[in-house]
Amino acid sequence: MIVTIWRHGEAGRAATDRQRQLTNRGMDDLRLGTRVFHRALEVRAIAPPQCILFSPWTRTLQTAEIVASGFSRATSHEHSALQPGSVVTAVEHCLDSLLDMPETPSHVVLVSHQPLVSQLVEFYLGPDSDVPPLSPGALVTFTLDVPARDCGELVFWAAPPEYEVRL
Question: The whole model's pTM is what?
Answer without folding.
Answer: 0.96
